[in-house]
Amino acid sequence: MSSRELILGRVRRALADVRGEDAPVERAYLRVHGDRGVEATVDLLAENLADYRALVHRCGEAELASVVGRLLAERGSGSVVAPSGLDPRWLSETDAERVEDLAGSTAHELDRVDSVVTACAVAIAETGTIVLDGGPDQGRRRITLVPDHHICVVRVPDQVVSSVPQALERIDPGRPLTWISGPSATSDIELDRVEGVHGPRTLEVILVEPVQE
């Protein structure tokens, strides 16, 4: 008996009592922890985002353009890449050069861009996670991975959920999903934290509330 046959035999014996692929999977886990209202859920999102070292800002929809403009100015951004479907009003109060999200843009070209501004698909309060799905107002995945500064706009409460199971119900697993929990960071064997290795060094999240009627 070859080593291959020996290993496959062990795998078959280990899987002998496993149910078939069509058998229903029990999903008895909790969909959400606790009984939070909308305001408490948004507050938890802001708290966990900040805990992951994202910079969190809150404003009304009428103030969004001025907040985006201020953040870009404070950063000293001379250029900003924005998805084709981004609301142009969001960038109406900045003098930064707008760079298109083009299929042919190289990593070197995007690396020369100072900032990126996008929307999101959903935000998860319990984990402080922003999910992008490549939609028209979020653009290609690489525009949020190469530039060093990412401003992400989250509409509250519509785009905020409490838990990961609730988020999974809202997104299409076939889309190019990017899950973001704070700025990109890693650490070496001595636990020295280094930011900006696999994505933006700075993540700023704007929680924007609708106009009250």
| Distance linking N and C termini | 76 Å
Q: Strand pairing plus helix content: what structural class?
A: alpha/beta
CATH class: Alpha Beta
Q: What is the count of structural domains?
A: 1
Largest sheet: 6 strands, parallel
From the alpha carbons, calculate the radius of gyration and give it in angstroms: 21 Å
Number of strands: 12
Instruction: Indicate the low-confidence ranges by residue numbers.
Output: none
CATH topology annotation = Rossmann fold
Taken from the alpha-carbon principal axes, the silhouette is globular
Count of DSSP-assigned helices: 5
Describe the structure.
By secondary structure, the protein is of the alpha/beta class. It is built from 5 helices and 12 strands. It has helices at 3-14, 38-51, 64-75, 107-111, 164-168; strands at 55-60, 79-82, 97-100, 115-118, 122-124, 129-132, 149-155, 160-161, 178-180, 185-187, 193-195, 202-209. The strands form 3 sheets. It has a 6-stranded parallel beta sheet, sandwiched between helices. A hairpin with a 4-residue loop joins strand 5 (122-124) and strand 6 (129-132). The protein starts with a helix and ends with a strand.
